[in-house]
Every structure is written in C-alpha cells, then in structure tokens.
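Suppose you are handed a protein chain with no further information: no name, no annotation, nothing but its sequence. What can you learn? This example shows the usual starting point.
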Amino acid sequence: MKPDELLNLFLQQLNGVITPGAELLGSELQQKIKAAAQATFDKLDLVTRDEFDAQRAVLARSREKLEQLEKQLAEMEARIADQQD
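A reasonable first move is to predict its three-dimensional structure. Written in structure tokens, the prediction is:
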C-alpha cells in the first residue's frame, strides 16, 4: 500500500469514528488531520509493500549466496586438512 493510500484509508476510518453517520469532516479539520498524519508517517520512515518485498528478495538471494560460499569454504578447508594429513 502506498503512503498516500494509507493516509487516505486512515482519514476514512478516522472520519467514521469521529463523525458516525456524517459523510465528511469539515475540510479545514480534514486538512489539519491529514497534515498531522502525514508528518507522523514521515517520521516513521515507512516503506511500501513493493519496496519491502524487493528487499526481502535481495536478502533471500544474499542468504543463498552466503550458504554456497560457506559450503565452498568448508570443502576447501577439508581438502587442505586432507593434504596436511
């Protein structure tokens, strides 16, 4: 979910809680709430789901590569140990 979508969803839910039965908050109040919410979200340093999934994929590839390198290192160490015996 994009930050703007998250903010709009937040405002819709807040709107339903503050004014049950009313369609919209006053535009001035809504703008102030939106600005305050946006400032809070900016401080949280949120990322989109796409960014999160991309970083998770990078991490998975890095783990696979690390496991391969650890296996290669263990094999090389075993060969060196065999040559020394």
